[in-house]
Write a structure and sequence with these properties.
The protein is an all-beta fold. The protein contains no helices and 9 strands. The two termini are 13 Å apart. The model has no long low-confidence stretch (mean pLDDT 89).
């Protein structure tokens, strides 16, 4: 659940709250499903946008404070600073590229880094975003990564 308030065309404030439950199934027994954990996340966002440049590129900076917690664990606080550049291909299609470091306020260190590729489609008063991102993080002394594909529907 989220809300955003726009202060004109170039500044907005917003916030979200999400609760999720993770489940695991036994591969040998399709009937066995076990809950692993519940988790929540609350965010507060400040978004700054430039005017679209003459070459049809627009730059957006979203600064996000995030608080998250898994069941039976401590609260984690992050600052996320996403820099995004999109290109206005035509009236309704805008492909983009973005970078986003995650800085842990709890551990006072950069914990992971995301690289995004995606595109937004405007259809009437609905915005559909199709994207992928690679999440790069340090596990022990090695760098590891995972990839996520997503679709976002906003009305």
């Amino acid at each position: 659940v989220g809300l955003t308030y726009n202060f004109g065309k170039h500044i907005s404030l917003g916030g979200t709250y999400r609760y999720a439950r993770s489940f695991e199934s036994d591969l040998d027994d399709d009937q066995s499903i076990t809950e692993i954990e519940g988790k929540y996340r609350a965010t507060a966002d400040l978004k700054l946008k430039t005017k679209r440049f003459k070459n049809d590129i627009k730059v957006t900076n979203r600064i996000r404070y995030q608080q998250s917690r898994k069941a039976d664990s401590e609260i984690n606080n992050y600052i996320r600073n996403r820099i995004k550049a999109d290109y206005k291909f035509n009236k309704n299609v805008k492909p983009y590229f973005a970078l986003e470091p995650y800085y842990s306020l709890t551990n006072n260190k950069l914990e992971n880094f995301r690289i995004y590729l995606g595109t937004e489609f405007d259809v009437k008063k609905v915005n559909v975003e199709v994207f992928t991102f690679v999440n790069v993080y340090r596990k022990r002394n090695d760098l590891e990564s995972n990839q996520t594909l997503g679709v976002l529907y906003t009305f």
